[in-house]
Write a structure and sequence with these properties.
By secondary structure, the protein is mainly α. It has helices at about 5-25, 35-45, 50-60, 70-80, 115-120; strands at about 130-135, 140-145. It has 2 domains: about 5-80, no CATH class; about 100-150, Ribbon (Pemi-like Protein 1, Chain: D). The chain is built from 5 helices and 2 strands, in the order H-H-H-H-H-E-E. A two-stranded antiparallel sheet has the order 1-2.
Length: about 150
Amino acid sequence: MAPYQTADSGRLAGRAHGEAASAAADLSTASEGMLQGKALLDKARSLSNRPEEQIARACGYVGPSGRVLKKSFYRALVAAKGYAVPSASASPSLSKGRQAEFRTRVHGNGNLLIGQAYTRRMGLEPGQEFRIELHRETGSIWLLPLDSPND
């Protein structure tokens, strides 16, 4: 017997472990891989009285860290129903995250913000100083780097 374990607690733990193991056996198909097509629809239909996360896990949609891959599961369900689902790998021109629009507007407090996407793209560093030139004829603002403190 393990330390701090009585005979009764061992029987209770064994029974609880047995129940958990049988429930896990019902839901566990992760070793079979991620189900697709008709197999996915049949398995999801048979488990329709369970929570979504358990259904996805039972159909094999679990990442290496144990996290349920809900988005992949839902996409596979939609594809199994016969709908075309564009994948991220199918269109390489699309990238993740927000893209710089090369537009800005004057804020209510009068400030004009130049975002991090633009400063990073230009290779600007924090603390770098500029002289601002206004060109009324063209409506443009020029930022001229200050190379020396005398500029």
